[in-house]
Structure formats: C-alpha cells, structure tokens
Specification:
This protein is α/β, with parallel strands linked by helices. The protein has two domains: about 120 residues, NAD(P)-binding Rossmann-like Domain (Rossmann fold), CATH 3.40.50; about 180 residues, Dihydrodipicolinate Reductase, domain 2, CATH 3.30.360. It contains ten helices and 15 strands. β11 and β12 form a beta hairpin. The radius of gyration is 20 Å and the shape is globular. Bound molecules: nicotinamide-adenine-dinucleotide (NAD). The site of nicotinamide-adenine-dinucleotide has 23 residues, from α1.
C-alpha cells in the first residue's frame, strides 16, 4: 500500500475543519499536525484526528509533514505559505492565493526555489454543477455569446468579530467570493481579454457593490454583478450562458439546466442532495491533488490560476478607480 501523505492543517477554523475531514477520509492522507495562533482551537481540531496541536508554523520544522493546508485569513496567506514552502512542504492555499499579485508571484517563486508544489482552493472548478455547465458550453453545438453571473453575500459586514467582516484582513470585497466567479468566467468561456468595473460603497465603508464587464478573447462578453448586502435570499450565485438559441443556467451549486435549442426538451440536473463537500467540489479537488502529487502531473488548481484570479481582481479595482475604464488583461 502506498504511504499516506502526512498533512498539517494551518488555521483550524471553518475551512481547516473541512479540509482536515476530507484529507483524513480520503485514504491517501493522514492529518498529523494542526497549527493555529489560538492553541485551544488547534487542540480541538487535532483531537478529532489524533494529531498534534501546535501554535506556530516554525514548530513544524523537522517534523514528518509533506503537505500543509493554509486556511488562515486572506491577508496572512502569502507570509504563511512562503514560510511553509521554505520548510520544504507542498502547500495547498485557500483562495484567494494572496491579496496582491505581487505577493502571489512571490509565493510561486518560493515554490519554484524550494521545488515544491503550490495549489490554490478554487474548488468550483471541481464542482459537478460547473463541470456540467462547462461540458455543455464547450460542446460542439454551443457557441457561447454572453455570460451573466451573480454572486452575492447576504451581509458582508457580518458580525464585527469575524475576520471576514474586517475588510483589511479580507483584502477587499472582491477577494471574498467574487474572485471565484472571475475564475469561473474563464473556466467556462476562456480567457478574458479586457475587463471593466464600476463599484460603490452602499452599506459598508468599503466598495461593497461591483458591476464587472468582461470581453472574452474567443467568445462574446459578459457581466458579473456582485454585492455584499443582498440579504440571504436564494440564489446567492447564479450563472447564465447564452449561445445561438441555447442557454445554460446554474443556481447555487445545486441546479443545472440546459436548453439545447428552440422547441427542444430542457436537460436538467440537480446536485442539491449531494453531500456539501462533494457538491462544492472539495472532495474531487483533494483526490486530484493527491493524484498530482503521486504522479508529478499538472494540477487543475495549480497556483498559477490563483495568480490569474488575483490579477483579475486587481484589474477590476484599478478600473473602478477610473470610472470603469477597460483594462487589458489578455494573457500573453
Ligand atoms: N474555497 C471556499 O469555498 C472557501 C470558503 C470559506 C473560506 N475560504 C477561505 O478559507 C480561509 C479561512 O477561512 P475560514 O472561514 O476557515 O476562517 P476561520 O476564521 O473560520 O478560521 C481561521 C483560523 O485561522 C487562525 N489564524 C489566524 N491567523 C493565523 C496565523 N497567522 N497563523 C495560524 N493561525 C491563524 C484563526 O485562529 C482561526 O482559527 C480564508 O482565506 C477564506 O477566504 C474559502
């Protein structure tokens, strides 16, 4: 039997808990260390896996660890991931890869210098609903012309004690969930050539309301509408891709519908009953990562897609400060 990958979870909150559970259940990995600035939290999570709780990353030096999951607030990602890479660990970093493209590049450089792998948590690339949408949209008979995407938060400010309600720790509103949809836009329709954004501060003291316009290199244009004050009415996230008398619609990570043409039966799939960890793509993302580590093969969620998503966020922020001027983001 192949040896299990020895895992450290860094940041034992919501996502640390989810990744720890999936890693442990995968059969390919074993959670042996949990690191958290709050040692009591680390201990609680470590107890679930009979792992060792630590307060600082430095304590992982010399320990038997292969892969670390970075699940700390956004503004700590770069520093924490680089420290782990310098300890010669492979690293999975939750999204956003970093809160600036400059930091994201430093992380990729650290992975290269240390000859380690760096993955990013763009889990929607593995979610069944978006895989179904991609298959239809990229199919032989679908010629995508426009994409309309909504991704909202109910109350972004949340409770003051949450780090995600602290926009400095978040890195800005777009780094919360909208970054997933900038990535999904390219996943579904290919590279964005130019992008423009208008933003306003509506309910919070930061820009919490964005309208993003995308021109795709190969196929049409699209819009992302995203705000942090939508209440919690469903759906928070919705995608509609329209082609030549065809359309694909997704709602949340639950529902998929495809109209293949005028007067044709609509094909529908529901993923609502799947376990949350499967519906959101986390389980498939773990399996893919363990395979990539074993084979040395390319990973779908390589850090470079994380860097690209951060570059798109920065382009939106830049455009928003110049009344929505289009920014060239065509990949070289
Ligand atoms: N991909 C997704 O679906 C998804 C969903 C939610 C959150 N996230 C991302 O996951 C990350 C974690 O979010 P969360 O909701 O789990 O947060 P959380 O607040 O539940 O947990 C964060 C943990 O990190 C610890 N921590 C803070 N700074 C630390 C440091 N410097 N060193 C060690 N520990 C530290 C905190 O004590 C806390 O236990 C964020 O980057 C967020 O953007 C991704």
């Amino acid at each position: 039997m192949p040896k299990k990958i020895s895992v450290a979870i860094v940041g034992s909150g919501v996502m640390g808990g989810i990744h720890g559970k999936i890693a442990q259940q995968s059969g390919a990995a074993s959670v042996n260390y949990v690191v958290d600035a709050d040692l009591a939290k680390a201990q609680k999570c470590a107890d679930l896996h009979r792992a060792t709780a630590l307060r600082s990353i430095g304590e992982l030096a010399g320990k038997n660890v292969n892969l670390a999951f970075v699940c700390v607030p956004n503004n700590h990602h770069a520093r924490v991931a680089i420290e782990l890479l310098n300890l010669k660990l492979d690293v999975f970093c939750e999204k956003p890869l970093a809160t600036s493209a400059a930091d994201a590049r430093l992380m990729i450089e650290a992975a290269q210098v240390n000859d380690r792998r760096l993955f990013v948590g763009h889990n929607r690339r593995f979610a069944p609903v978006y895989l179904a949408a991609k298959e239809a949209v990229r199919g032989k008979y679908f010629s995508p012309q426009s994409i309309n995407m909504i991704q909202n938060d109910g109350d972004m400010g949340g409770e003051g004690s949450l780090w995600a309600a602290n926009f400095a720790q978040l890195g800005g509103f777009l780094y919360d969930t909208t970054i997933h949809f900038l990535d999904m836009a390219e996943f579904l329709l290919g590279p964005i050539a130019s992008i423009s954004a208008l933003s306003r501060s509506c309910c919070y003291p930061v820009n919490d309301n964005f309208t993003i316009h995308m021109q795709f290199r190969d196929s049409g244009s699209g819009v992302i509408s995203s705000c942090g004050h939508a209440s919690w009415i469903f759906p928070f996230e919705r995608v509609q891709v329209v082609g030549d008398h065809q359309a694909v619609i997704t709602e949340e990570l639950d529902e998929y519908r495809h109209c293949p043409g005028l007067s044709r039966a609509i094909d529908g799939k529901t993923y609502a009953k799947l376990a949350f960890e499967e519906k959101w793509g986390y389980v498939a993302m773990h399996t893919h990562m363990y395979d990539a580590l074993a084979s040395g093969g390319k990973a779908i969620h390589d850090a470079r897609i994380g860097l690209r998503a951060v570059e798109l966020v920065e382009a939106c922020q830049k455009s928003a400060t110049s009344q929505g001027a289009f920014i060239d983001v065509a990949p070289a």
